[in-house]
Amino acid sequence: MYPNLPNTMQNILVAEDDRVTRTLLVSQLQKMGFSVVAVEDGTQAWEALQPEEAPRLVILDWSMPGIDGPTLCGLIREQKTYRYVLMVTARARKEDIVSGLNAGADDFLTKPVHGGELHARLRVGQRLLELEETLGSKINQLCAALEHVKQLQGMLPICMHCKRVRNDQQIWERIETYIEQRSNATFSHALCSECLEIYYPQEAKKLSNENEPPSQKAASSL
After folding, report:
1. CB 96: neighbour CB atoms within 10 A?
2. Among 75, 143, 162, 202, which residue's CB has the most CB atoms within a 10 Å radius?
3. CB 10 within 8 Å of CB 33
4. CB 26 within 8 A of CB 52
């Protein structure tokens, strides 16, 4: 009857004290592909939301024994885990809707619940939850990346002759060692052309001859 829902976010909690309404909701949700946890009052709902693996989609009746819907919404919003809360109520006054939204509800449905509208609202809830998970994952990746980023800043004493630098412990060390310990940079040692001529003149001359164009080699042999 309904299109398949994504494989994630298919667990849902239903808190409804009226047995007939609760049975109808459970039947509709199961046809949509949800795995349903159904309770009959707000206190049971709050207990069901304590485990880490508790559903993140929640349908609450406004008026329930124990903890009513608006009060339960406020408690849910104090949890670290974001949950999409859909309030089901016979109340249709704007004042009641505003009150419920201020308490923490994400959306409202009036009784009797229409299956198609319920499905559409829950698909919105799934998209919001998936977006929240994606953003949370990106934030965690960014925090992990920042932990590996080290910045070099401030005045750094460097010897004018050997070019060693003085670290925070007042120890002189090679500049490449200092940089490698404080950044993600690594060094591959080589020789610049000037140092090659100063310290290895024979190798520099040999290398220069090898790189000399054939025309110049022929002219120098005459």
Report:
1. 16
2. 75
3. yes
4. no
Q: What CATH number has the domain spanning 11-145?
A: 3.40.50.2300
| DSSP helix/strand/coil, 64 | coil
Position 95, amino acid:
E
Strand order in the sheet with 84-89: 35-39, 11-15, 57-61, 84-89, 107-110
8 A C-beta contact, residue 191 and residue 204: no
Query: Which pTM was predicted?
Result: 0.61
pLDDT in tens, 84-118: 999 988 876 777 778 778 888 898 888 888 889 99
N- to C-terminal Cα separation, the chain: 95
Residues sharing a CB contact under 8 Å with residue 8, sequence separation 6 or more, in sequence order: 126, 130
**C-alpha–C-alpha distance, residues 82 and 209, integer Å:** 71
Query: Which residue has 């090659």 as its token pair?
Result: 196
Domain ranges of the chain: 11-145, 165-221
